[in-house]
Amino acid sequence: MAKRRGFNGLKEQGSDVATLVTDYLKQETVGPLKDLGRFVAYGSIGSIFLAGGLVLLLVALLRGLQTQSWCQGNLSWIPYVIVGTFAVIFMTFAVWRIASGPARRRLPKPEAKP
Fold first, then answer.
1. Cα separation of 85 and 80, whole Å?
2. What is the Cα–Cα distance from 71 to 81, expressed in whole angstroms?
3. CA angle at residue 34 from 33 to 40, to 5 degrees?
């Protein structure tokens, strides 16, 4: 392989460095951002479907409780309290799982001081 000499050799090496830097930046930024976008998109779609399903289940529970004979007249507010309680339980569980989910396990454990 012949040595590159003069201005042309320096120019070729400069373009090689520019190509190398560009390829590296694409690899380290564009690739992970595409993966992150895919993760966020699928997570959002899943969350929307899960929330919609839970709303339908809560409405079904409300309608089912409203058909009971003990929920008529002055006690017609009881099914709303029961369904509201279930909704708060679901939300509390979701927040608890988000706060103590897989991300927490990845955090390094603090070292004990001697």
1. 8
2. 12
3. 85
Q: 69 exposed, middle or buried (CB, 10 Å; 0-12, 13-18, 19+)? A: exposed
- CA pair distance 58, 80, nearest whole angstrom: 10
User: According to the 3-state scheme, what is the secondary structure of the chain?
Assistant: CCCCCHHHHHHHHHHHHHHHHHHHHHHHHHHHHHHHHHHHHHHHHHHHHHHHHHHHHHHHHHHHHHCCHHHCHHHCCHHHHHHHHHHHHHHHHHHHHHHCCHHHHHCCCCCCCC
Tokens read off for 102? 């897989």
Using one digit for the tens of pLDDT, what is the confidence trace for 64-101? 999 988 888 898 999 999 999 999 999 999 888 888 87
